[in-house]
Design the sequence.
């Protein structure tokens, strides 16, 4: 087999899924199918009451968080999957990616419900104009165009796993805080199921990369793709979202993002002997990430937020 072609090609005369040829991929599809949910399950009645107690500053933060996620969902996710699908004939894989597209449509609908509930059309327009004007937004779009248009199927898979792990990390940290504070229950539920979905999508891209690909790719290239995304996301952390309003320091989130990016690189590494050199600070980063999670858990009643947010 030509080593520059992915192993994700199959007999062109195979018209039905059975008998299943790749059980690990099919198991992943059945797992994503079992976790299917719809936006109709979201109850925002309590959120409407909680919203009244939020300060204008914290409302503005949520506007930015939800708007940024929606903008990314629209600009990033669909393009990578569409590009990948052009190279895939394996029905088990196409089943998963087609279902992933459906789930991402549900994510977009769900966040849209919140934005449409709490912002007027004029306010939404202002939020998206601010996002469009932010330099990291253009950087994200250039990043996705660069790796989506790559001739390397492996690079596209790394990009997909990276999008699910890195982009909007700061936004999810903010939603994690809100969930733990016991406010905005409908948004908290939405965060939980979408975060779970994204983990499934990331793990699937990793599965294909590690176990179903013959194409050569260097660890340096994998690291480049991830590091470019991390640099963009850190711009969001430091220069766009006022995370200090919710008790998150930019330094702590910066370290947590480093931990997550290192973990992703470790999962995708081809030459495991590079591990010690590449991650000399891994234990320290992991400890700091765990400390951040513990601190967030302790702050469930941050400023007694359930009843008083300021």
Sequence:
């Amino acid at each position: 087999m030509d080593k520059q072609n992915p192993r994700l090609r199959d007999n062109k005369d195979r018209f039905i899924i059975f008998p299943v040829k790749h059980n690990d991929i099919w198991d992943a599809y059945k797992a994503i199918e079992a976790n299917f949910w719809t936006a109709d399950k979201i109850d925002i009645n309590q959120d409407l009451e909680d919203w009244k107690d939020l300060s204008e500053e914290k409302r503005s933060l949520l506007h930015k968080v939800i708007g940024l996620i929606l903008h990314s969902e629209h600009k990033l996710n669909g393009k990578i999957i569409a590009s990948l699908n052009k190279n895939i004939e394996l029905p088990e894989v196409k089943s998963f990616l087609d279902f992933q597209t459906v789930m991402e449509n549900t994510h977009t609908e769900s966040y849209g419900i919140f934005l449409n509930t709490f912002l007027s059309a004029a306010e939404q327009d202002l939020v998206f104009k601010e996002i469009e004007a932010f330099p990291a937004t253009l950087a994200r779009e250039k990043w996705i165009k660069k790796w989506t248009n790559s001739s390397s199927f492996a690079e596209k898979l790394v990009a997909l796993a990276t999008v699910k792990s890195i982009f909007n990390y700061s936004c999810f940290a903010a939603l994690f805080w809100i969930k733990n504070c016991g406010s905005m229950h409908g948004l908290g539920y939405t965060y939980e199921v979408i975060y779970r979905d994204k983990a499934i999508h990331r793990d699937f891209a990793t599965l294909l990369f590690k176990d179903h690909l013959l194409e050569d790719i260097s660890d340096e290239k994998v690291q480049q793709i991830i590091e470019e995304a991390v640099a963009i996301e850190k711009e969001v952390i430091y220069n766009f979202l006022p995370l200090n309003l919710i008790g998150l320091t930019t330094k702590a989130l910066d370290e947590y993002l480093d931990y997550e990016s290192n973990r992703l690189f470790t999962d995708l590494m081809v030459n495991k002997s590079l591990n010690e050199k590449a991650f000399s600070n891994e234990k320290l980063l992991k400890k700091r990430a765990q400390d951040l999670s513990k601190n967030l858990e302790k702050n469930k009643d941050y400023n007694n937020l359930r009843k008083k947010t300021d």
Q: What stands out?
A: The two ends are 63 Å apart (CA to CA). Confidence is low (pLDDT under 50) at residues 273-289, 296-310. Residues 44-304 form a domain with the Ribonucleotide Reductase, subunit A fold (CATH 1.10.620.20).
